[in-house]
């Protein structure tokens, strides 16, 4: 069987000499160039992979390759692939080209012509590097608003911190992907006009004010109905969304106090009611206590779909037991334990409200390392919260990490203490079902010893397990290797 050895390779990660270039307005983008040699016959093959970055189907392509030989000479070879049939956004290798000499050491390939159903493109300008984008330098509030606006369209959150590079007939998305004549990015799916409409910091701040104020007004009206349990829980939910806006924090506290006052009052009524029932029963032997029907209970549940509502919890447990309607599904949605794990850089950690807010960053990006102004230490923070679970409960989780050095070395999984101090087994944490956020330092790197920030190729994996059952709940990476 023939054995092949890769003697040259260039792809999207290659910098400097022999990096991949793009011929302006070409509907196709080179994604890899490779030369492989048959170890027995020494015959070499050129392999080229392309991606369709346009909104048309590519039928054929023509390439020009400069081959560099071991004796210092080079040669230009032209070739076509007339049978590509590549749908938009898809990627595929072209037919491998057998080369005349086996001592090829490197190859530079450019696309010279591309035919789609709509057009015949021919290279007219010199190939260029796809522009790299610097992150937007916005305030945290403006950036959070941008994320809110973009999150409605899905897409990859990591892609939201850069501006679009908009040129005639082509553009580079916030995620770094080149697009030709497309309205939505072929990589992350975000719309170019939407991205462009969220690149003005002043407008974003105005939009954030408008949003927060609208929520505030709604919550303020609801919060006036202190006796209405449903209105109060809605007001609480809304005030929670706008921490720090006007007197929202103060009003949130007032709502919570009103709710507990209502509960105390209710308990008193029930106690009085019980006395009345006993008295009535003594008077009339055939009194039938009005039983609460399943419909009524289900109706209550529908109006109080909150994981913190104990009545909803008790009713749903009952209804689930008798298989009533979608009660099992509702129960699972609200009260089965689920968790969310997040990460942030130290900048975010300092400004975030502990126990309450969730960080915007979920994975530490490379540019965070570069932009870090803290030259002494570069800590990464971990966040854990329950997104559902039984009311007033806690779940014990065990958190461990695995750090990789730049050479791939690792110490295996070790327990984490999140820098929170204390004397007990510090890898165990009791997470509250009400959504309170646990956060703490996952690890920090000190320059000169083990500087994970500045060395590319380092990383930190995180594993979260259920302390009692040992079930792995989450496994992910704070920093990608
Ligand atoms: Zn994109």
Protein described:
This protein is an alpha+beta fold and 481 residues long. The chain folds into 4 domains: 4-122, Immunoglobulin-like (Sandwich); 140-199, no CATH class; 213-333, no CATH class; 338-479, Sandwich (Immunoglobulin-like), CATH 2.60.40. The chain is built from 10 helices and 20 strands. Strands 1, 2, 3, 6 and 7 form a 5-stranded antiparallel sheet that branches. Strands 15, 16, 17, 19 and 20 form a 5-stranded antiparallel sheet that branches. β2 (28-38) and β3 form a beta hairpin. α1 crosses α3 (201-223) and α6 (294-303) crosses α7. The longest helix has 36 residues, at 248-283. The model is unreliable at 284-290, 373-377 and 446-455 (pLDDT under 50). The structure holds zinc ion (ZN). Zinc ion binds next to loops.
Mind telling me which CATH architecture of the largest domain this is? Sandwich
Mean pLDDT: 83
Number of domains: 4
* Cα end-to-end separation: 35 Å
Tell me the CATH topology of the largest domain. Immunoglobulin-like
* Percentage of residues in helical conformation: 25-40%
What ligands does this structure carry? zinc ion
Output the number of helix runs. Answer: 10
- As a whole number of angstroms, the C-alpha radius of gyration is 30 Å
- Under CATH at level 1, the class of the largest domain stands as Mainly Beta
SSE string, helix = H, strand = E? EEEEEEEEEHEEEHHHHHHHEHHEEEEEEE
Largest sheet: 5 strands, antiparallel
Structure classification:
alpha+beta
What's the count of strands? 20
Approximately how much beta-strand content do the residues carry? 25-35%
Which outline best applies?
elongated
